[in-house]
Amino acid sequence: NLDAKIRKWADGKEGNIRSLLSTLQY
Asked: GO CC annotations (predicted)?
């Protein structure tokens, strides 16, 4: 599951920072 999230995050490089913040918050 984490791998899939990382893959999706990489796919959405546009909002990678936002994804990182979201992952840290959640």
From this structure: cytoplasm; vesicle
